[in-house]
Amino acid sequence: MRKPRDFDAELKALEDKARELKTRKVQQLGELVIATGADQLSTDELAGALVAIAETKEAAKREAWAKRGVMFFESGSRRTDPASKRNLRGAPAQSGSQQSPPSGTGSA
């Protein structure tokens, strides 16, 4: 006879995994802000720049930001240690867009 599944335990395990992934994402985004130097901006400036970037629908601008993000990750000019660099490269797809607040601020 088969052992019945413990749906509550499976659900709890999935919730724990989701919480862990969210925590890792928040940490990586914070590391990205620091690595780009955007931590020197005020919270209002950073939030405004990110809102402007998120609202931008122009494909050319988004592609330019993505290319700049790729160049940023490929350069060795970041202020973080090598382990953090690997984590940042694996960050969510938004990472290329988040590198651009200084240049995106003037165009917003």
- By DSSP (H or I, 4+ residues per run), the number of helices equals 6
The helix/strand series, from N terminus to C terminus, equals HHHHHH
Report the strand count: 0
- The radius of gyration over CA amounts to 18 Å
Strand content: under 5%
- Fraction of residues in H or I helices: over 70%
Please give the largest β-sheet.
none
Please sum up the structure shown.
It is built from 6 helices and no strands. It is an all-alpha fold and 108 residues long.
List the helices and strands and how they pair.
Elements: H1 7-36, H2 43-55, H3 59-74, H4 82-89, H5 95-98, H6 101-107
Helix pairs in contact: 2-6
Write a structural description.
72% of the residues lie in helices and 0% in strands. The chain has helices spanning 7-36, 43-55, 59-74, 82-89, 95-98, 101-107. It has 6 helices and no strands. Helix 2 (43-55) crosses helix 6 (101-107). With 108 residues, it is mainly α.
List keywords for this structure.
single chain; 108 residues; mainly alpha; disordered C terminus
